[in-house]
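USER: My hope is that you can spare some time for a protein that puzzles me. I am handing you a single protein, as its sequence and its fold in token form. Walk me, if you will, through where the backbone shape changes along the chain. The protein I mean follows directly.
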Amino acid sequence: MTDLFGVPKPAAPLAESMRPQSLADVVGQPHLLGPGKPLRLAFESGKPHSMILWGPPGVGKTTLARLMANAFNAEFIALSAAFSGVKEIREAVQRAEAVLAQSGRHTILFVDEVHRFNKGQQDAFLPFVEQGLFTFIGATTENPSFEVNSALLSRAAVYVLKSLNEDELGQLLERALVGPLKGLAFDASARERLVGLADGDARRLLNLLEIIQTAAGEATRSIDGAFLDNALSRNLRRFDKGGDAFYDQISALHKSVRGSNPDAALYWMVRMLDGGADALYVGRRLVRMAMEDVGLADPRALRLALDACETYERLGSPEGELALAEAVVYLACAAKSNAVYVAYNEARAFIGQDKSREVPDHLRNAPTRLMNELGYGREYRYAHDEPDAYVADEKYFPDGMSEVNWYRPTPRGLESRIAEKLAYLRELDSKAKKP
């Protein structure tokens, strides 16, 4: 195919040439597109409404927006927030106004990566959405609760799209092999490897297929696992540093450690490292887990987590990752306590709303004569001179403040012993109280 000047037109990328032309062609999202499901009903309603399509890359957000424009015979205007600004927004509004004036047709304005627009840019859409000049469809890989203005969010339905599963990616592969890539044959190992590398992303699957087609040329028609590995450079699993996938996997790692499941903790840690996460960032998270979730039930956990970070700094990857693996397994298996974490937060909350209280005189130092004369340090009893190195019923809180009980040891690990000691000391306090 050539253009008006006889110059051959470049062939459309495989992902574009295989873009679904009808809702029936869409692979995946049965929870939204199945009979009676929300997006299916939106297509069947006869009237489009503004929406946010939230999901990982390559799951059909742009395709669904285009199909909606086709379904309602609407003008389709697409913007990418990564490359657009106020000027492009203004031009889109003017184009929508012109289309309405000339043909009476409605416009669907699609904004890809809408989370990249700042508050002012997002606000610019509001009056035109309210006027009904266009239907707004935003696509985002980030949680719209945090990345989309509440005013815009309140005017749009949010639909959550999911990564394609292996069966759905397999369907897409079959379509390509009986269509644009007819003549290529993949054995079972190559199919499994390709679907795994796609990692739930339809666009990635088709892009990988295009690379394989180029590598195969005219000479190779049968693709096995070895050929595929040679044709493709190493592809990382999805791990969007700083995005939702990043925080979701950190959360899964933390919860697996807290839940005392060493195998799940190893799985999530290796997933993160395999996806390109900074190993020392993972190490810092392990230090946090040692303090927050293991605490004084096993004080060795903090030291071991710190040692793992230091070991990684000395050895680097991949040898140093073994130290992190040792730490994550230890933390998962260790006795758990968040008693110090809870106590610290309760103390911070109290101090944040309490008044400034004076230090009682008997707890003050008295390095000068004047301080002695003012009574600083008077009646202070030195704990090491007392039985059990404990001054029973001594007051350590400010005058006029009721004693609190923020630290409540758990009956697990070392804290069970700590709890026994504190109970014994409270008993001494009780006996020493003046009648």
Summary: The first helix runs from residue 14 to 17. The mean pLDDT is 85. The radius of gyration is 32 Å.
